[in-house]
């Protein structure tokens, strides 16, 4: 880890000038956005008038584009160093302004959702200039049963920041205040961090892995009551909002924005549980290859081919991923190169930097990528993953107006896991020996285990937790941990020893503060595997369909967008094919 950002060469730090040239220009837009709020409010009571609606949409879109840019810039700067008070204040200011805007504009949701399908069609006839907003308006109309009185909506909008505080509290603890201490091993003291822990779990030294595992979970266990209350506050807020908005359950409220039936989640969970035997088979392989009598979770990330011990520089990652993506054609590669040259990637870990990796951006800018790169192959895969997100956003910006450019969360992980699928295929092909091929087959198997089975386990836990709270069960450190332990037992397969430390794993997962997000990793992997295999085997037509998918944004229902690309995620077939893919990889690995 670098001691500070000043030690890092400029080419490895993102240049956010595509968002704002300086903090001063951000401030100018902030002030302008604040001053123009009364103009937006001035449309209250006029949205049923087709002429006024046209004027409103033009101003609303321009206003929203700037507000989004303000939000992304402030947060991106804050994530560089979460100890920076200047950007923490900017982040807080735009959040407060966004809350103020939401509270003052609840009439938008109320008026647009009150339009019936007949009203919408009449308005489109009277003003053809509204034609491009048809799906946008119909999407609002479907929320009608879940929109409350203007007074109640105003209160909920004003409470938005407060309701999001559990995530902020957890983030502050997990990124700033947590201290893992040092791991002492063979006369060396290793300072543990999130990224360092992930690195040590891949060490061939089992004693070191176990020490890191014990050390990493210690602060979570020591603070488990605080974390449990923080998470419980998030869950209880979710179910109270679902009840207030007349949804049958929190699960159905979470699925509603993506037009998804509950069967999408239930089918995923059923297929994963029905195929845990393949995880048990994978556990048996790990135990045999690692030559251990008992397989523990701290053994779960060790590359099985011990002699393959490669580091990949950031430049190596750029080259490997670019070559892997060649099946997508010259247009995609041109965008890839442009993104590298635009310096929109923040590469290395520094003290105070937010953990993990993500891709983000705004309609006014190209996508940006945030990483904590440590030169392991898993980082190369993460790089490919985030690039998929980044170019998905860029294609959508090119092909869709602002109101349709945001990729639905249900579809957002497909492009990223698609890139990973091509990367693993490429790495297997260029392997210089049978042992190296086994190394990449192993990582491909791990990808399915971690993304399909593990993320489904997380989703099952979320479902169980919310259903327990809806049934009136108190959420305490013990009850939450008990539910998590039962999911570990259901999903980790035979042959995996579940250490007590792992019972508290739920306490370190940031995604749980965005309820019912994680299952989309699993559904997306299934779609990505199918799409990537089609691109490789069918060529141009499949590539064209995939590129159209990347540019589809949210201009129609997510399941329909997928069907246009040849994928149906409402049934079980795609999920079963993903489990079968793991079986095929296991068979190929064992044959070498």
Question: What topology does this entry show?
Answer:
Layout: H1 23-35, H2 37-41, H3 50-80, H4 85-104, H5 106-113, H6 117-126, H7 134-141, H8 150-158, H9 160-163, H10 165-177, E1 182-185, E2 188-191, H11 194-200, H12 206-222, H13 224-244, H14 250-255, H15 263-274, H16 276-290, E3 295-296, H17 314-324, H18 330-341, E4 345-346, E5 358-360, E6 368-370, H19 377-399, H20 402-405, H21 409-412, H22 414-429, H23 434-470, H24 477-491, E7 496-497, H25 519-538, H26 540-550, H27 558-564, H28 573-591
Parallel strand pairs: 3-7, 4-6
Antiparallel strand pairs: 1-2, 5-6
Helix pairs in contact: 1-3, 3-4, 4-8, 6-7, 10-13, 13-23, 15-23, 17-19, 17-22, 19-22, 22-23, 22-25, 23-24, 23-25, 23-28, 25-26, 25-28
The third-level CATH topology of the domain at 5-163 is: Butyryl-CoA Dehydrogenase, subunit A, domain 3
- What is the CATH architecture term of the domain at 5-163? Up-down Bundle
Q: What helical percentage do the residues reach?
A: 55-70%
How many helical elements? 28
Question: What top-tier CATH class of the domain at 5-163 fits best?
Answer: Mainly Alpha
Q: Globular, elongated, flat, extended or rod-shaped: what is the shape? A: globular
In percent, how much strand structure appears in the residues? Answer: under 5%
For the largest beta sheet, what order do the strands appear in spatially? 4-6-5
- What's the CATH H-level superfamily name of the domain at 5-163? Oligopeptidase f, N-terminal domain
How far apart are the termini? 37 Å
Largest sheet: 3 strands, mixed
Helix/strand structural class: mainly alpha
């Amino acid at each position: 880890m670098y001691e500070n950002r000043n030690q890092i060469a400029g080419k490895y730090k993102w240049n956010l000038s595509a968002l704002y040239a300086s903090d001063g220009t951000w401030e100018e837009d902030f002030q302008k956005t604040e001053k123009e709020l009364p103009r937006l409010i001035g449309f209250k009571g006029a949205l049923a008038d087709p002429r006024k609606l046209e004027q409103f949409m033009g101003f609303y879109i321009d206003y929203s584009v700037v507000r989004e840019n303000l939000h992304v810039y402030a947060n991106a700067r804050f994530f560089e160093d979460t100890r920076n008070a200047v950007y923490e204040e900017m982040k807080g200011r735009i959040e407060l302004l966004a809350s103020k805007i939401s509270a003052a504009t609840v009439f938008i949701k109320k008026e647009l959702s009150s339009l019936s399908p007949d009203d919408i069609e009449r308005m489109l006839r009277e003003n053809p200039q509204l034609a491009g907003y048809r799906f946008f308006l119909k999407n609002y109309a479907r929320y009608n049963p879940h929109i409350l009185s203007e007074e109640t909506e105003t209160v909920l909008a004003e409470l938005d920041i407060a309701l999001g505080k559990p995530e902020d509290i957890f983030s502050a603890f997990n990124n700033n205040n947590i201290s893992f201490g040092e791991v002492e091993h063979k006369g060396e003291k290793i300072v543990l961090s999130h990224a360092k822990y992930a690195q040590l779990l891949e060490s061939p030294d089992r004693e070191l892995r176990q020490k890191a595992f014990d050390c990493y979970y210690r602060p979570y266990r020591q603070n488990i009551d605080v974390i449990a209350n923080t998470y419980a506050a998030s869950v209880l807020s979710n179910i109270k909002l679902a009840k207030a908005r007349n949804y049958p359950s929190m699960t159905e409220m979470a699925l509603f924005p993506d037009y998804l039936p509950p069967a999408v989640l239930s089918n995923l969970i059923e297929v994963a549980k029905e195929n845990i035997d393949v995880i048990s088979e994978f556990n048996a392989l790990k135990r045999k290859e690692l030559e251990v009598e008992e397989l523990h979770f701290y053994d779960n990330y060790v590359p099985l081919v011990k002699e393959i011990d490669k580091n990949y520089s950031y430049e190596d990652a750029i080259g490997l991923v670019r070559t892997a993506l060649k099946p997508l054609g010259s247009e995609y590669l041109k965008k890839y190169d442009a993104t590298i040259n635009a310096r929109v990637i923040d590469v290395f870990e520094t003290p105070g930097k937010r953990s993990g990796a993500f891709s983000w951006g705004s309609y006014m800018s190209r996508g940006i990528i945030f990483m904590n790169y440590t030169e392991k192959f898993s980082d190369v895969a993460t790089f490919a993953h985030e690039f998929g997100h980044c170019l998905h956003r860029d294609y959508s910006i090119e092909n869709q107006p602002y109101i349709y450019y945001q990729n639905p969360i249900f579809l957002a992980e497909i492009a990223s896991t698609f890139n990973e699928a091509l990367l693993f295929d490429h790495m297997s092909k260029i392997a210089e020996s049978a042992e190296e091929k086994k190394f990449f087959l192993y990582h491909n198997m791990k990808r399915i285990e971690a993304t399909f089975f593990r993320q489904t386990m997380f989703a099952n836990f979320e479902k169980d937790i919310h259903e327990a709270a809806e049934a009136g069960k108190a959420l305490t450190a013990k009850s939450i941990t008990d539910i998590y332990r039962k999911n570990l037992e259901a999903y980790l397969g035979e042959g995996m020893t579940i250490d007590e430390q792992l019972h508290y794993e739920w306490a370190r997962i940031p995604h749980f503060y965005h309820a019912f997000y994680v299952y989309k990793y699993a559904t997306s992997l299934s779609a990505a595997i199918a799409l990537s295999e089609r691109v490789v085997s069918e060529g141009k037509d499949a590539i064209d369909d995939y590129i159209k998918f990347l540019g589809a944004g949210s201009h129609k229902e997510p399941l329909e967008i997928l069907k246009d690309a040849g994928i149906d995620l409402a049934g079980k077939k795609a999920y079963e094919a993903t489990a079968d893919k793991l079986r095929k990889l296991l068979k190929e690995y064992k044959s070498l």
